[in-house]
């Protein structure tokens, strides 16, 4: 706490000094910077008291993630630093799990930490050099991406050097080497690579379209990686099939654009065996295809990806291979499904397959219908669908559907004052995979949700506006269907019924029996029907206030057979909040109850345990 | 860490006010060609707005600017640069969306590895900047409340 206060104090003082001037000149160059501070005060609430054993009640009441970034630029030269502070780490972030060790560190001192990243750089017209922390990506990131995602607490910047050179637009070459960041440590091993892109169209002087050929190589070297013995494995990694301390990966890309058509394609492969938590070492490969077409205000894209053992761990030892593993990679294979902006549509997002053998794709269609005389009136239509399969392996004899969703949304701006958005989404996913099937691991139940959202914004005048959001999730899962052809499964299933449920089932009142069944499902009340509502009042440009609530109505209708814990209780996940924005400063304060669930950002997800508390976030820049 | 912070404070002493300028970072344009952000400063004042496909207020703000743009253009010469910070996963969706939302009057650029975002010190989206024709940043604002686009227009009018 002391460290935190010092940090905030110094940072605030810094920004006080700055706010007088807003932009800063130092010598001939200029200084710019930003501060972001996210704080949570956890409040004791029986309803959200978590069962996760890594949640230590003694350390429960406060967490803070802070980022202070400063950059100095003088013409082509620039230099900068960023300090990340975990004061202490917030629950649910991997940096918390990474640093938490109840046996060795009962007081959680290691949860307080910081990390400094820094760089100096020279960027000329056709070449550039950077020494220090490097953020970069090759192609679509299939073999390499160094990036920061604060919402996930993720950062794998590579500390080392990078040089790039380009000859006009004809070709561009880039080489880099360094050691990646692993939470608040350096991984200590090495990553190096190079990327070359050739613009065929520029070389041929073809200006109507674009054709390019690109290729990359990435190596990850960890001294004595084959000798590493992980507690969870009991054997050395060499015994698990790791054939080299150096992992070599290559990728090739072909991109094409002409008259509204685009094609982006990439093939990537691991040339050595590589190990991922929970599986044996093996080679890997991935194909990525992205097709697009646009004409006036219509556009369509389709993406396909197939990957086998392609996720590449930053380092092959230590806590990342614990159970459950803490996934930290040097490449980027995110979920390609739509990331919704409405809470109920995001209740059970797709989180990928366990064995890193996945194939699937998604499509998007957009169309805008506009009144040529009045720009304030328009319709925007959007249709999206995605389908993802788990590919077969020893455990899964056949390819298996993990996720399907289809969704459509319509934006209608009626006038300058009124705007409405309607969203419908159908999501179907394999419940056993998500780990909460009511009948163990044997049967596959596809959970089906239909989600309806209405979102309305009304502007009273130039400053005052009101936004109302209503959501409904209908759990359309048929819990009885899968067993009708399987007598054993059916009898096991019938035995699991309560008296009341069995009676209704016999009478053919399947709907009512289903309600009881849904009520009995274990885990974090994913099941049953949900409703949610938000009311937001804005006073532009400075203030915004909101109140929201969401709850499971299957439970509230009393169809719950209570078998302990919070499962039988009706829980309101309420939130109240306000934000204040002035110039480059923004403060947001909220209080509420947060459901356990998956939080995704950029297609990468983390598990967030339930909590009740107050959030205070602050951002500033100059 | 403490020393670091005090060092930084010391650094801040003796600074004087002046305009910050657009950094020189490589981004992609709507056609997928690599351009330098320095080239955005072409003499016309501009609104630079950082957005992503998963940021709802960003899209609301850009739509609101789009609605009013013709009215504004009657009074001032200006342009709008929409910077998508979508990564490799959603960048094609961002391109499709820019087209499908009818943002044809915007200059859309794509900052796939967030180099421009980092260089402009953007922490949260939406984040808008007002930049004069020479590339000097004169104003910035984060977050969006319906109606706050009016403030951007007022600021850009003052640039004349």
Q: What does the model show?
A:
The complex is a heterodimer of chains A (622) and B (160). Chain A has 8 helices and 32 strands. With 622 residues, chain A is mostly beta strands. Chain A has a domain at 124-293 and 304-323. In chain A, the strands form 4 sheets. Chain A has a 24-stranded antiparallel barrel. A two-stranded antiparallel sheet of chain A has the order 7-8. In chain A, strands 9-10 form a two-stranded antiparallel sheet. In chain A, strand 26 and strand 27 form a beta hairpin. The longest helix of chain A has 20 residues, at 2-21. Residues 16-22, 433-443, 521-525 and 558-568 of chain A have low confidence and may be disordered. Chain B has 160 residues and is of the alpha+beta class. Chain B has a single domain (21-158), classed as Glutaredoxin (3-Layer(aba) Sandwich), CATH 3.40.30.10. Chain B is 35% helix and 24% strand. Chain B contains 5 helices and 9 strands. In chain B, strands 2-9-8-5-6-7-3-4 form an 8-stranded mixed β-sheet. In chain B, helix 3 (91-100) links the parallel strand 6 and strand 7 (107-110). The longest helix of chain B has 20 residues, at 56-75. The N and C termini of chain B lie far apart (45 Å). In chain B, 55% of the residues are buried. Chains A and B meet through helix 1, strand 1, strand 2, strand 3 and strand 4 of A and helix 1, strand 1, strand 2, helix 2 and helix 3 of B.
